[in-house]
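User: Hey, my collaborator sent me this sequence without any context and asked if I could get a structure. I don't really work with proteins. Can you help?
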Amino acid sequence: IIKNTNFKQDEIILTGFKKGGTNAYGVADKFSANYATAAIQQMGIGDFNPVDLRKFLSGKTANANVGLNALSARVSGNSSIKDLETMFQLMYLNFTQIRKDEALFNSWREKTKSQVQFMMADPTSAFIDSVIKVMYAGNPLAPSVFPVASDFDQINLDRAIEIYKEQISDANDFTFIMVGNIDLNSVKPLLANYIGGLPSKGKKGEIVDNGVRTITGQKDLKFYKGKEPKSFIFSVYSGLAPYSESQAMHTEMLAEILNIKIIEELREKIGGIYGGGVNGSLSKFPYEGYSMALQLPCGPENVEKLSAAAPAEIEKIKQNGPEQKDLDKVKKSLLEKYAVNIKDNRFWSGALQGIYFSANDPNRLLNYTNIVGEVSIEDIKKIANIVFDNKNRFNGVLFPEQ
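Assistant: No problem. I've predicted the 3D structure and written it out in structure-token form, which is a compact way to encode the shape of the chain:
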């Protein structure tokens, strides 16, 4: 898919994807799969180690990588017009000529271990790590927010390379997207050579649901660590809900409205928090569901007050919907961002990925201004009652050691 633009005279963005990714692998392969991309990128490509590659690319504006995430194999790259072929060459090498260098891998592993070994000494990091373990009932496939040094000892380099190759050695069912100042006549031979020349065995990509879910019901956790008078409230509401693009937008708008209330009511009136806020989303993959997270760093003396005030603000929206002024403020912010983004190549690259990966409706992108304008108080009230139904609620609080 190619979108020719004139937003920047000398910028071309390349992305690509194939459904699959690290969700396809079990506990035995967890660390080899999760760190396969990072490990492989430390070793260079083809005949180039990282130092040689940097020298070769000196003076050029070209970059390309292929990597894995939970749900897909991904291509990312960018170049100037002049260095477009170099970008394609780099992409092609990432697909076809992985470079194994155990010395470089071991050096990266030891360096990374030394960087993360003291992370759990930080009370907030240790708290969030414990929260995740409890939220996912100790599921070994649960996401890791903070790595620990021992994680990297469990990476098997040969298995990491094998997993990477399993995901990218068949370019069939990859979708490639280019956005920028692209001359079709110039790019067609490059597409034929560097994309048309990729190995293709005919295997379809597919989303894998590895079954990882947060615990059901209501759960509270008190965690004591650190000497400083600092606390942290972390509440997560999660569950299953039918996905639609409208509902997903309403979920994001609800989070922004709550952030306004947190600043107005909790920070300015109560004066009890240092920052924090709400973020949340309604997801389509790997299953249709929602997650809303409330994070409030505060002093220990304000925990009880804030633990009551934050849910009270949520309850007001569930009962009455948001105030019109707050909804209008969020709409204004979204439309201002859209006015800037619509002239940005990377925005279009991401939007096209959403259309082709998630089957998003392109008309929503083109009619965004009208769609945002039509969102009502009732729409936000409705989604608030879905995502804050309290059926699955986790509430964790960090306290200093007593």
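In plain terms: The CA atoms of residues 354 and 360 lie 6 Å apart. You can pass these tokens on to your collaborator as they are.
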